[in-house]
Amino acid sequence: MGLDCASVIYLLCFLLVIVNAQRSADRAYKPVVIVHGIWDKRTSLDFMANRIREVHPGTSITVVDLLHGTSSLAPMWEQVEAFGAVARQINTENPNGIHLLCYSQGGLVCRGMIETLSDLNVSTFVSLSSPQGGQYGDSFLRLIFHKAVKKTVHRIFYTSPGQRYSVANYWNDPHHQASYIKHSKYLPYIDNVIPEATNESYRTNFLRLNKLVLIGGPDDGVITPWQSREDESVENMEDRDIYKQDLFGLMSIQNRTKIYTVEGVYHHQWHQNISVIDTCIIPHLD
Ligand SMILES: *[C@@H]1O[C@H](CO)[C@@H](O)[C@H](O)[C@H]1NC(C)=O
Ligand SMILES: *[C@@H]1O[C@H](CO)[C@@H](O)[C@H](O)[C@H]1NC(C)=O
Ligand SMILES: *[C@@H]1O[C@H](CO)[C@@H](O)[C@H](O)[C@H]1NC(C)=O
Ligand SMILES: *[C@@H]1O[C@H](CO)[C@@H](O)[C@H](O)[C@H]1NC(C)=O
């Protein structure tokens, strides 16, 4: 027998290394895919990405490098396709799933991806100050069209040419709901509120999420109001038909949902606020 003491020790060490490597592979954090919002630049969300790297070393983080600046006004379905292709690619390399961390308009893009891409394995979806109920407010509107007025812009947005802008795709004017349902090409579809266009797979796909994290707050200033639909009367999420009828799964997923209402954060600060990132986001990125 040629196994001397040194070889045995060597072999043991080798085995230990294998076991340890296996352990850290099991423990590895899932990749995080970050989707930006309107007007964001290539580097806008780097602070948040770097903070996650710092707290969760070794995490693979992709700030998707697509549709910046004015291109962020591209129609929503085009954005779902473009960002979805990148997320899918990362998912293919990581079949145990990915996390989607999506800011502002990006949160609506991500919801579209989750509902329509049945092969995407998303573990946690973080919607960071996203207008999930649509937009109806002047402050947001003027970021894009300086002279537009919320009361009249439906005349432009609810037309075919108007629908070429992302914002028009989720403009939800409470005073012109019939027109919204008829002309809007995005939000009423992913909300599953158009009876003739209901798609059960949107709901099934959404319910494959492990966790839904919704973050917003009253001092946002841009997502108006922060519950997302500005009106004389704002409905709570739980009072909306979309929720009560569980049209895309929001009610069914409630016990896997975490809602953070944070005060004192302006819209452009969400992804730069360490306390928000550390408290509301990172604990959900396992
Ligand atoms: C998705 O990921 C989970 C682990 O997070 C894994 O158990 C499951 O098999 C994956 N599903 C697919 C379809 O790859
Ligand atoms: C429902 O959505 C899925 C995913 O986008 C699509 O493949 C399917 O064709 C849609 N079904 C109907 C009836 O439109
Ligand atoms: C969460 O809700 C679903 C149905 O809505 C239920 O089947 C499941 O048991 C619940 N899970 C927990 C942990 O309460
Ligand atoms: C950061 O977030 C905290 C709440 O967690 C808030 O009180 C504070 O004002 C925020 N700071 C900035 C600069 O937005």
Give me a quick take on this structure.
Its main location: other. The chain has 286 residues and is of the alpha/beta class. It is built from twelve helices and six strands.
Question: How would you explain this protein's 3D organization?
Answer:
By secondary structure, the protein is α/β, with parallel strands linked by helices. The protein has a single domain, classed as 3-Layer(aba) Sandwich (Rossmann fold), CATH 3.40.50.1820. Helix content is 38%, strand content 11%. Strands 2-1-3-4-5-6 form a six-stranded parallel sheet, sandwiched between helices. The radius of gyration is 22 Å and the shape is globular. It starts with a helix and ends in a 5-residue tail after the last helix. One 2-acetamido-2-deoxy-beta-D-glucopyranose (NAG) is lined by residues 116, 199, 201. Its EC number is 3.1.2.2. Keywords: Glycoprotein, Hydrolase, Lysosome, Signal. GO terms for molecular function: palmitoyl hydrolase activity; thiolester hydrolase activity. It comes from Daphnia magna.
What name does CATH use for the topology? Answer: Rossmann fold
CATH architecture: 3-Layer(aba) Sandwich
Using the CA coordinates, give the radius of gyration.
22 Å
What is the count of helical runs? 12
**Count of folded domains:** 1
The distinct bound ligands, ions and cofactors come out as: 2-acetamido-2-deoxy-beta-D-glucopyranose
* End-to-end C-alpha gap: 47 Å
| Helicity level | 25-40%
What is the CATH first-level class name?
Alpha Beta
Broad structural category:
alpha/beta
CATH superfamily annotation: Alpha/Beta hydrolase fold, catalytic domain
Mean pLDDT: 88
SSE succession = HEHEHEHEHHHHHHEHEH
The total beta strand count reads 6
β content, as a range?
5-15%
Order of the strands making up the biggest sheet: 2-1-3-4-5-6
Pfam families: Palm_thioest
Catalytic activity: S-hexadecanoyl-N-acetylcysteamine + H2O = N-acetylcysteamine + hexadecanoate + H(+)
Protein name: palmitoyl-CoA hydrolase
Main location: other
